[in-house]
Amino acid sequence: MKSTLYSLAAVWVLAAGTLPATAAAADEVNLYSARKEELIKPLLDRFTEETGIRVNLVTGKADALLKRLQSEGRNTPADLLITTDAGRLHRARQAGLTQPVESAELQAAVPATYREPSGHWYGLSLRARPIFYARERVNADELTRYEDLADPKWKGRICIRSSGNIYNQSLVASMIAHGGEAQSEAWARGLVANLARTPKGGDRDQIKAAAAGECDLAVANTYYFGGMLAGKDPAQREAASKMAIIWPNQGDRGTHVNVSGAAVTAHARNRENAIRLLEFLVRPESQSWYAEVNYEYPVRAGVAWSALLDQWGTFKADSLNLGQLGINNAKAVMLMDRAGWK
Ligand code: FE
């Protein structure tokens, strides 16, 4: 209650223009972000300009920030956590690091699929994890589903990163949700048997390897492909230009998607400010900016896509509630291990 009164007072003071802006320094929000500074800072500056609320930004690797939150416990300065992958947001919730937030604005802006049902986290941007194929060696109609990756015809022709990566864990978690564990395990075994090499590197490395002929198919998140196509590195642009997207499972459940998202921390001292920041991040202007700079899709419906994303065409996204990805994560990890997915 005290902090609410204080923040109201600070806003009033600013509005009255009787004190320099620095006097409102205590009206702040502390953000731990697993997104790189350049992917978030300009938006935060706009938020501060508009509200007078200062944002203290700490950036770091996703898992390191989770650990930090955990070890800081009640003493954490963090009010809001921004991280990637619903699987990680779920881990934060499971560890007791988040609290539920009810906001009509957030609920209206973020489709139910892309937020935790009781408000523990909200998706901010959307990414898809489709299949990429080497234009020179594969026809787009040769496969239509993730399930096809287990077809022996692709033996020695697929690149995908390790099972330790949360993106793959979430993909498998979605398959478990739709087809059950036995079917997913059989699929994972088939996929492993088709790998061109022992999994290594990140998503970009899979696309590069396929472009270089080491494999013919790669699985990666769309924004890496966008970053390669639109980036400054000529070698990456060249590699990406040899590849194209197949949107899997258009005839059934849809392509696997995931989010970057945010959660108000369990011990947030600036809870109201954290919610205001969250609400700001799902506004149409923020959504288009956020999606544009990292080649992601807006979570909010009706927000225009970037030109590059438009070129890739529309697709049907899996409508599974992303909370399921976290719930099935442990099963997915064990299943991938049993299947020999390194
Ligand atoms: Fe990523």
What is the topology?
Layout: H1 2-16, E1 28-33, H2 41-51, E2 54-59, H3 62-72, E3 80-84, H4 86-94, H5 104-109, E4 122-128, E5 131-134, E6 158-159, H6 166-179, H7 181-194, H8 203-211, E7 217-219, H9 222-230, H10 234-241, E8 243-246, E9 257-264, H11 271-281, H12 284-293, E10 297-298, H13 307-312, H14 323-327, H15 329-338
Parallel strand pairs: 1-2, 1-3, 6-7
Antiparallel strand pairs: 3-9, 4-9, 4-10, 5-7, 5-8
The protein binds fe (iii) ion.
Structural write-up:
- It is a single chain.
- The chain contains 15 helices and ten strands.
- The protein has 342 residues and is an alpha/beta fold.
- It has two domains: 28-127 and 259-304, D-Maltodextrin-Binding Protein, domain 2; 128-255 and 316-338, Periplasmic binding protein-like II (D-Maltodextrin-Binding Protein, domain 2, 3-Layer(aba) Sandwich).
- The termini are far apart.
- Mean pLDDT is 92; it is low at 1-25.
- Fe (iii) ion is lined by residues 84, 221.
